[in-house]
Write a structure and sequence with these properties.
single chain; 3 helices; 30% strand; HS1/DABB1-like; Stress-response A/B barrel domain-containing protein; globular; 4-stranded antiparallel beta sheet; alpha+beta
């Protein structure tokens, strides 16, 4: 994975947030790639682990960028800021982490 930066978000939605609201938020999240040119790819899914280590987090989102500068441009982009303002009030917990994949040993 040479030349990429991964932006990972783990989300736990508040009790009472409906399935339809979550689906709309996911659609809007995915749509950011159509408005922010620095996004190379976007994937998401729900927890399917059998280890019971999710600590209540149910959704995972991964956005890929070519460079750290592209990631920074994404975070500051008005479309991302606007989306965050919609997403954060629906969340009980969130974790965000960015990393550059290390070369295989």
């Amino acid at each position: 994975m040479k030349g990429v930066v991964k932006h990972i978000v783990l989300a736990k939605f508040k009790e009472g947030v409906t399935k339809a609201e979550i689906e709309k938020l996911i659609k809007d999240y995915a749509d950011l790639r159509n408005h922010i040119k620095q996004v190379k790819s976007f994937e998401w899914g729900t927890d399917v682990s059998i280890e019971n280590l999710n600590q209540g987090f149910t959704h995972v989102f991964e956005t890929t960028f070519a460079t750290l500068e592209d990631r920074s441009a994404y975070v500051a982009h008005p479309a991302h800021v606007k989306f965050g303002a919609q997403l954060f009030p629906t969340l009980e917990k969130i974790i965000g982490i960015d990393f550059v994949p290390a070369p295989e040993p």
